[in-house]
Structures are given as C-alpha cells and as structure tokens.
Write the structure tokens for this entry.
Amino acid sequence: MMMYNCQKWGGFMEWNEIRKNHYENFLSKHYLKVFGGYEKNIERNLEFFRGNSIISAGNSTAFDLGCGCGFQSIPLSVCGFSVFAVDADEMLLKNLAGFVEENGIRNVHVIKSDIFTFIESTELSPDLIVCMGDTLSHLESVEHVKKFLGRCTDKLLPNGILSLSFRDYSKDITDENRFVFTGGDRDSFFECFIEKDGDKLKTYDISHIWNCEKQNWETEISKYFKCVLFPGMIDDFLQERRMENIHSIEDRGMIFKIFQKRM
C-alpha cells in the first residue's frame, strides 16, 4: 500500500495548524470509537450512495476529500469507483490503509494532503467528488469554502456529481443546544461544546475515558475552530457554477446535498 504526500497550500496555514494539532493530539486516537467504527458507517454510506444512484458505470473515478479513516471511501470502492482518498491526518490514513490492505481492496488510493492542495494540484478529472462529514467547516472561512468548491466544480467532468454534507449552523446555538453528544460506550463517551464567535465556531471536543487501573474517569478537552455554514449560501454559490441540486435531506442536524454539473 502506497501513501502519497503533498505539500500544504499556504493560504490558511495558521488555521490549518490549529486543526492539525487538534486531530493529531486528540481526535484521531478516538475517531473510530467516537463515530461508531467501520461496520456501521460502511453500511450506512453504502445505503446512501446506492439509494442515490451513485454507482460507477465502469472505470469511474471518485475523490473523497477529507476522507478520514475511509467511512465514504470504502463504500465508494464497493460501488465500483477508483477512489482517491485524501486527508491530512496520518493516523486516520493509516487506519484506512490498514483496512484496505486487510480486506484486499485494490481500488482505493490513499493520499496524504490537505484537500485544498490536492484539488489545486491534481490533473485528474473525476466523475464524482465527495466531501462529507463536517469537512467543509474545517476550512478557514466561507470565502475559502467557496474557492474550494469552485475548484471542485472546475475539476469535475461534465455531468459529474458533487456530494456534500455539513452541519447546519443557521439556527441559534444557545443554552443546551451548545452541547452535542458524539458517541461512546460503557468505558468512554464523547461530547462537543460549541459557541458562535462571529462567523466562527469555537469547538471544544471532550472525551471521558474510564481508567480501569485507577478506577476513575479521565477527561480531556481540545479546542479548535470551524467556520459557520448555512445551506442557502452553498446552494446559491453552486447554482452560479451551473451545479444542479438533485438531492437534499437533513438527518440528525447534518445537511446532505448532491449536485450535478450541467454544461
């Protein structure tokens, strides 16, 4: 299994470093447990892709940008795509590379890069671009999100598909709405505390892990920032880029949108 590297795009270095440190020092080691592991997520995303006819017609290429440990990449490979799975986090990519190797998957190519650098530098034109989870909000600002999505639409083949998901922050985040349970089991649980700060979100990820040896709960907190995204701003921008919204749904606070490139 080969793992590729790209140099960082310099437009959002400081923001990128904060996010990078949060993942490397906190979230990556808990990621699979927080989000429920491979089996549940592969099944859920396979159902999503098949249900929306996101299936390779033969020799189709997909970019999974911000792939993490591959919750979308693996289902896309099952759907017949040659998948370029791109993420900046080494630990998550090692999880993905290990899963791919253990399961004999040959059509997932693991690439270590921030998503902006990759989409700026690649010469490939995919049939499908996926950017799911809450990846878009990790970009520095709405303008960076628009620039990134603009590059994605430029790279897509005619009639190509762009599949996005992001959390809806258009509603007021006050009182108990600032607390989000993200996952866990009997020996651990994870939560998130968020508060708006202008066009940014201060985001505190909190882990509670049971220490069997010491017989107590150990708590760890890590802070980073997200940009505030509204569904309407994504729709308006992509419509200007001749992207037709062919599917839109909300599920547990997440917005899922599929767009098709029209010429």
